[in-house]
Amino acid sequence: MSRVAVAAVLLLALPGIATSGQTAAGQAVLQSALDPAGPQAGAIFGLWQFTLALCAIVFAAIVAAFLYALWRAPRADAGSTPDMIPLARPERRIHRTVLWATVISGAGLAMLLVADMWTARALARLPLQDAVRIELVGHQWWWEVRYADADAARSFTTANELRLPVGRPAIVSLQSRDVIHTLWIPNLHGKRDMIPGRSTTIALRADRPGVYRAQCAEFCGLEHALMALPVTAQSPDEYEQWAQARRRPAAQPLTASRQRGRAVFDDAKCATCHTVAGSGARGTLGPDLTHVASRPTLAAGVLPNDRANLQAWIVDPHRFKLGANMPGSPLPAADMHALLDYLESLQ
Question: Structure pTM?
Answer without folding.
Answer: 0.81
